[in-house]
Amino acid sequence: MSTFHGPACGALVQARGLTVARRGRTVLDGLDLDLHAGERLFVRGACGAGKTTLLHALLGFVPAAAGSIRLLGRSCRCERDFAPLRGPLGMLFQDSGDQLFGPTVIEDVAFGPLNQGLDADAASARAFDALRRIGIAGLAARPVHELSGGQQRLAALAGVLAMRPRVLLLDEPTAALDAASAARITAILAGSGLPMIVASHDEALAAALATRSIDLSAPDQHPARRHVRGDISFPV
Ligand SMILES: Nc1ncnc2c1ncn2[C@@H]1O[C@H](COP(=O)(O)OP(=O)(O)OP(=O)(O)O)[C@@H](O)[C@H]1O
What we know:
CATH architecture of the domain at 11-86 and 197-236: 3-Layer(aba) Sandwich
Family: Belongs to the ABC transporter superfamily.
CATH topology of the domain at 11-86 and 197-236: Rossmann fold
GO molecular function, one term: ATP hydrolysis activity
Helix content: 25-40%
Radius of gyration: 17 Å
Number of strands: 9
Largest sheet: 5 strands, parallel
Shape: globular
Strand order of the largest sheet: 6-7-8-3-9
Strand content: 15-25%
Pfam families: ABC_tran
GO cellular component, one term: ATP-binding cassette (ABC) transporter complex
Protein name: Putative cobalt transport system ATP-binding protein
Bound molecules: adenosine-5'-triphosphate
Number of helices: 7
C-alpha cells in the first residue's frame, strides 16, 4: 500500500478553477480553494448552494467539468488518482446510508482498517477504539439498519476516524444529533488536531471549530451570481 507523506508544506487540498455541473446546470464555477495543515475550513451556503457537490468533487465522486484538484500534493484527474486518497482523506457523507454497509456496527467500522491491511484482531481493536471515542461502544453488536439516524451518524464518523485519516471532509457532521452528542463530536473534532473541510449549517459547530470559512452562493436563489470565488476569510 502506498503511504502519503507529502506535501511537507503547501496545501493538503487544493482546487483551482473548479467547475462542476449537475444535470447540465453549473453548480460550482471557477472555485479556488486551499486547505493547509492546522486549518478547519467551513463551507457555508444556503440549501442547494453546492456544499455537498464541492466535497464530492474534491474526492472525485462527482466529475469536474474544468479546473484542477491536488490532494496531499498529488494531481488528481481520474478515479485511479482519487481512489487511493480516499483513506488518507476521510469523508463523512451527508447521508449515513451511503456510508454504512454493516452488517453490524463493529464489522462496519472495522471494514476500513481491514481494507488498509490490518489483520482481523487489529482492525477490531481499532474499530472498538473509535467507537469508544465517539461514545457508542455499546452499539457495537447492533445491526446498522436498526440504528436511529443520529446513531448512524455517529457510527459513520467512527468508521471514518478508525481509518486514521490525515484530513477530514465532513458533510453536516452534527445533523440528526442531540445536543450532548453534537458537543461530544465537536470536542472530538477539535481535539483531533486534524485539518478538515466541513460543510455545515450548524453555527455552534462553526463558532467552536472554524478557523476560516468560504461561502457559496445559491444559484437557485441568485441566478445572476453564478460565479463565486472561494476563500472569503472571516474572523472567528
Ligand atoms: N445527484 C444529483 N443529480 C442532479 N443534481 C444534483 C444532484 N445532487 C445535487 N444536485 C443539485 O446540485 C445543486 C447543489 O446541491 P448540493 O447537494 O451540493 O447543495 P448543498 O449546498 O449541499 O445543499 P444542502 O445544504 O441542502 O445539503 C442543487 O441544485 C441540487 O439540486
